[in-house]
Design brief:
The complex is a heterodimer. By secondary structure, chain A is an alpha+beta fold. Chain A is about 20% helix and about 25% strand. The radius of gyration of chain A is 21 Å and the shape is elongated. Chain B contains 14 helices and 8 strands. In chain B, the strands form 3 sheets. A 3-stranded antiparallel β-sheet of chain B has the order 1-2-3, with no helix packed on it. In chain B, strands 6-7-8 form a 3-stranded antiparallel β-sheet. In chain B, a hairpin with a 2-residue loop joins strand 2 and strand 3. The chains are: A alpha+beta, B alpha+beta. At the A-B interface, helix 1 and helix 3 of A face helix 2, helix 5 and helix 6 of B. The complex binds iron/sulfur cluster (2 copies). One iron/sulfur cluster (SF4) binds next to helix 2 of chain A.
Amino acid sequence: MTVLSEMLRNLVSRPATTLYPAEKVPVPAGFRGRVECDDERCIGCSKCSLVCPASAITMVDSPREVEFRGKTMMRKKKPRVAVYRCIRCGLCERHCPADAIHLRSVLSITGTDREEVLA
Amino acid sequence: MTRVVVPIGPQHPALKEPLNFRVIADGERIVELELNLSYSHRGIEKAAEQRDFIRALPLIERVCGICSHSHSTVFSMGIEEIMGVEVPPRAQYIRTVIAELERMHSHMLWLGVAAHEVGFNTLFMWTWRDREAVLDTLEELSGNRIHYNMNEIGGVRVDLSPPQVDAALARIPVLEERMRAYVAMLEDEETMLARFRGVGTLSREDALRYGAVGPTGRGSGVDYDVRRDDPYLVYDEIPWNVVTDTDGDVYGRTKVRIGEIKESLGIVRYCLEHLPDGPIRVAAPKAAPPGEIYSRYEAPRGEVAHFIRTNGTDRVERVDIRTPTLANWTSVVYSLVGRPLADIPVIVAAIDPCLSCTSRITVLNRGEDARGETSPYTGQAGWFP
Ligand code: SF4
Ligand code: SF4
């Protein structure tokens, strides 16, 4: 009986599936998506690359002046993230002292950039 | 008597993961069963020894795709105990919330799979639809549906904000309503009862003898739950009950799991309403002093244990993971004997097996002094993980 009433209820209720792509699945705030580094803030300390469990971050040369805790300093390197190696664990974001690296609410499971996919 | 050897797996439509049964059948009845596991050994234990605790945790979490929080929590609890780190109460509550949400989504997934195995795909669709509400909650709280990565040594990675807590609390009444509907379905749906009742019966004595854990044991009347009998996190401070049943068959295990979902809903509600203020983590030292610990945890499938040995460095010297599925296999082999072949999928599904997590040891030496015994029927050596 319960099965029957459930069936009847489902017959008149709206579908449980989302009509993608006309309708998008809402992405909650704090969703762990694509990793992006804020070049203005990164001080090149390499902490993110050290904690990354997937070894997805390599430090590349990028000398520039940055502000850190009210002081201007010279950084030597910045991180480069192999987005398709990244397991989106959030450890880089958690351990960055300069609040420079973040997981954005952007999905990163597909891509067409050959360099990025193979990195 | 003619006996036929029926090989089932490692690739088989009824199995979701690689596993091999060598079934010796007399007509439709199963006479003897050989079980071969470990087709998907991934070497996670060894890999965990190669990296520091911070980088090992996401790896340990990936032992299982369903009880990911279980593995990372039992590992962190072990390391924290060796280090003598006291985790703040707020972090303990957050860990408990995630743990119980995980139990809910795991049991709802199981209910769907079990219904699917007996051909009741309608229920499969319904439970998985409702499970989405739990997964959405987990995604909102942690940023991901499956690998929450909430734990770190000394606390949790992110805090829960008041709007997140309210959104999670708002979903609970809906889920409670759904659970009531499933209980009603379980009680009067003849097609399901016919395939669940009296199938895969395991008496309390046998459950104890073969070391069944979790809902498999509790469905046979074994009143044992690590959360109550060796409390961790905040289970000794909050109101909840251990669910047991005396039927001992697939039906009994189903009742236990649905009862546990209801209990989990209560625990989540209580924890979210009584979330203490304070820090979400304490700074843990990088290295752990030399020590050994046997850390236990009640995962959705039963007791999971990590044996951890540290040697004064920032990584483990050895971590040995005993997953609940391994403890439950013996009871499956036992309860299948004498049953018709068609019962294999549902009896196997009733322990909620998780095979990749279970794969640990592979015996390579199958020569004369190997442990593999020769089957009297097939004449082939079996290798028993
Ligand atoms: S941890 Fe932060 S500041 Fe340091 S290199 Fe990475 S992004 Fe830059
Ligand atoms: S999210 Fe995790 S895996 Fe991805 S780059 Fe950051 S630390 Fe590495």
